[in-house]
Amino acid sequence: MYYTITLNPAVDMLTKASNFSLGKLNRTQEAKYVVGGKGINISILLNNIGEKTKALGFVAGFTGYFIKSELDKLGIEHDFVETLGTTRINMKLTTDTETEINGQSSAVDSENITKFFEKLDILKIEDVVFLSGNVIAGMELEEFKKIAEKVAAKATLVVDSNKDLVLDTLQYKPFVVKPNEFELGEMFGITLNGLEEILVYVRKLQERGAQNVLVSRGAKGAILLTENGEVLEVNVAEGKIVSTVAAGDSMLAMFVAKYNETKDYAEALKYASAAGGATSFSIGVGSKELIEELLPQI
Question: Could you tell me the pTM of the whole model?
Fold first, then answer.
């Protein structure tokens, strides 16, 4: 079973405006509302390709109800801790550029956190757990590490979060971590220039515990350093970008699922790139059919 942990999920409002001016009234086109949060995006991609997945985390209020109902429509299992308040709404506004405005969810309390940890007791050695995104208000960064520790002791751990949280969880030897190029540089306080510099710092992550490191590079594709020291590079498919939201999550989900199926890192990386492209060319997360359509370009 694939489990995804989204501590701070969201409802994403995707909309467009032909013109946008700060400090003035702006009118958008029709909005599309989709469930969001890195782990939830991963669950949707896994579900789209026929893999069984269950979403864990925290939800609250009318937006939390929307998240659960949308996952129910997709046939995705979930077992969220329900809290007081509301789950956040994020706006993704496309004009001549893409702007994101992320909201803030209501805080969780110690009782909520205890209930969440209890839900991890069901994990088995054959399970894979994606620990994604940031902590929610009311949760300490140290508790993120404790989640990683508990997961790694019982199942396969995959991590995709901000720089500090990723670095703090490397000691638990995650199967794969997936920073983008900017995030990788941010982890070490530098700006990366080119493939050779990327590989220097990718190896540093591996030295600190990561088994595999997957670095997404936007239009430049992606780079994978495998646990065997092999370096693989992949291009991206061509198409009309609708939104890059969840593209990295889709890439990570497909990489892990395809590797588990084939035990072939090169094949997994090809499918991962196609999945990232499929989501970039879609409203929401890409479909299995579009992934297969794009694969010959990779």
Answer: 0.93
